[in-house]
Amino acid sequence: MACHNDRMSPDDRRTASTPAPRTRWWAAAGLAAAGVALVHLLAVVSGTGQRVEYQLFHAVEDSFGQQPGLRERILSVAPPAAALTAAAAAVACLAGLGTPAGRRRALTALTVLAGANLTTQVLKAMLPRPDLANGVPWTAGNSLPSGHMTLAVSAAAAALLLAPARLRPALAVLGAALAAFTGAAAYLAAWHRPSDMVAAALVGAAWGLAATATLPARAGRTERAVSATQASPVPAALLGGFGLLGTTTGLVLLALTLGAPATTAADPHPLAVTAGVLLSAAPAVGGLGLLLAALRRTR
Q1: pLDDT, tens digit, 9 for 90 and up, residues 85-132
Q2: Counting C-beta atoms within 10 Å of the first and last residue's C-beta, which end of the chain has fewer, N or C?
């Protein structure tokens, strides 16, 4: 992963200090943070929410504790490896590689990595999961947000902050693929409920968007000089569109499962697994698309 390299002309230097549209991205970060609280309230604290989500978890809960397969081995290794790689690249930039502007981005990337994962661990330890008399088994307490999903999303966000603009679309796609796999695999292995992955995606997005709000904007000749590939909104729009479509489809399929009784004795609805995979994977893809869109307007 390359350190971001800012070689500026005099015109670039005059425009580099132009502030990014901070209000927009601070607001988006705030909405993502509020989304974490809303997901906890609806899916964890609410008895109805627990029953609705159990429609999905019941379909895979027998997978928990089985002999780990290739999917579980990749899930155990890939997100931590991605986060460590991003952290190592940021430390290398801070140690002297690249320009002062690149080192500032490296510090921002490290802050996103550390902040997102610390936030997840604090929330997981502090948030309650009440044991309600609603027919939903209470096991292992609170698991929201997912630590594996937070690692995947925050690693992708750090990579986007570190990389030159020309590499960001490809890195965003790779990061979205890693996050989607992490969410789907953690659900299918019954390590996490879908709401755990949604909350983790929102935690990572909140930190990434807040970091973007602190960066200087492209302007003037810098904006005009950027290549069509770098300036194109298509990659961000595609990721955002896939994320929105997947999440919406997952919610529709979830609604179709609600006729089945939410009890351990009942057979799971045939659409439950598909809905669970989509809701576990798609929100992170959409969040990284939004972050890529935000970074298009920065140096």
Answers
A1: 999 999 988 876 567 777 888 999 999 999 999 999 999 999 999 999
A2: N
Average pLDDT, the chain: 87
Averaged over 27-47, what is the pLDDT?
Answer: 96
pTM (2 decimals)? 0.89
pLDDT attached to residue 237:
96
Q: What is the DSSP annotation of the chain?
A: -PPP-----HHHHHHHTSBP-HHHHHHHHHHHHHHHHHHHIIIII-HHHHHHHHHHHTTTGGGTTSPP-HHHHHHHHHHHHHHHHHHHHHHHHHTT-S-HHHHHHHHHHHHHHHHHHHHHHHHHHHS-----SSS----SS--PSPHHHHHHHHHHHHHHHHS-GGGHHHHHHHHHHHHHHHHHHHHHTTSS-HHHHHHHHHHHHHHHHHHHTTSBBP-HHHHHHS-HHHH-SHHHHHHHHHHHHHHHHHHHHHHHGGGS--STTSPPPTTHHHHHHHHHHHHHHHHHHHHHHHHTTB-
In SS3 terms, 71-107 reads as: HHHHHHHHHHHHHHHHHHHHHHHHCCCCCHHHHHHHH
CA 45, chain centre distance (Å)? 22
Checking if the pLDDT of 16 tops 60, the result is no
CA distance 39 to 241: 21
Residue of 260, 286, 285 whose CA lies nearest to 273: 260
